[in-house]
Amino acid sequence: MRVRGGSHVDLSKSEAMVSEGRIVRLSGIKQGPSFFLSGSCMAQQKKGVSYRLQISLDVENGEVEASQCECAAGKGPIGGCKHICLLYTSPSPRDQRP
């Protein structure tokens, strides 16, 4: 996952979470030069806990402009936790993303 400034975030930790179907809500909308994804996912190690997530993507290059999650590692302006990666790699509404 490319983030503004050229750094990358490792997506490997979120792969198992995608197959487990941990995203419970997902929506996306294009607004001007950005595409906004929001959703919530079930925590992997804490039963019954879910986190709200938000990502802003640049429409032209798909770069992450901003992201945040309610977990400790996902605090903005650009959170890099596995929950953010899960939202980024989630299959829907992927066909609408840049």
Structure explained in plain terms:
There is one protein chain. The protein has 98 residues and is α+β, with helices and mostly antiparallel strands. It is built from 2 helices and 4 strands, in the order H-E-E-E-E-H. The protein has helices at residues 12-19, 82-89; strands at 23-31, 34-42, 50-58, 64-69. The chain has a 4-stranded antiparallel beta sheet with strand order 1-2-3-4, with helices on one face. A hairpin with a 7-residue loop joins strand 2 (34-42) and strand 3. Helix 1 (12-19) crosses helix 2 (82-89). The longest helix is centred in the first third of the chain and has 8 residues, at 12-19. The protein is globular, with a radius of gyration of 12 Å. 29% of the residues are buried.
Gist of the model:
Helices cover 16% and strands 34% of the residues. The protein is an alpha+beta fold and 98 residues long.
List descriptors:
98 residues; alpha+beta; four-stranded antiparallel β-sheet; 16% helix; disordered C terminus
Main sheet record: 4 strands, antiparallel
- The N- and C-terminal alpha carbons lie at a distance of 13 Å
- Which regions are unreliable across 5 or more consecutive residues at pLDDT < 50? 93-98
What general outline do the C-alpha atoms trace? Answer: globular
How are the SSEs ordered, and which strands pair?
Layout: H1 12-19, E1 23-31, E2 34-42, E3 50-58, E4 64-69, H2 82-89
Antiparallel strand pairs: 1-2, 2-3, 3-4
Helix pairs in contact: 1-2
